[in-house]
Amino acid sequence: MNSRVVLERFPAGGPRGSWPAEEFARARRMEGQRAEVVMDLASDAFLVIVRETAAEVTEVAVAA
Question: Engineering a disulfide at 35: which of 28, 39, 60, 64 sits with its beta carbon 3.0 to 4.6 angstroms away?
């Protein structure tokens, strides 16, 4: 089972040539997170997400 955590939302109608979601995701990747950008068509927004596998969720639960 995979889940995802939304780190940030960016409206799709940004200024031409501006890629704030990609820039945010790149900064998170530089910090070691596996951030990626996906499009949420229902809300017309770009989401920066981190996917979690079941193993990662279990590790967090055991550590708590």
Answer: 28
Give the C-alpha distances (Å, rounded to integers) separating 43 from 10, 13, 40, 61.
Answer: 10, 11, 6, 31
* pLDDT, tens digit (0-9, with 9 covering 90-100), for 19-37: 999 999 999 999 999 999 9
Residue 47 to residue 44: CA distance in whole angstroms: 10
The helix or strand, by DSSP H or E, that contains position 23, with its residue range, turns out to be: helix 20-30
Long-range contacts of 17-22 (CB under 8 A, 24+ apart): 21/46, 21/47, 21/48
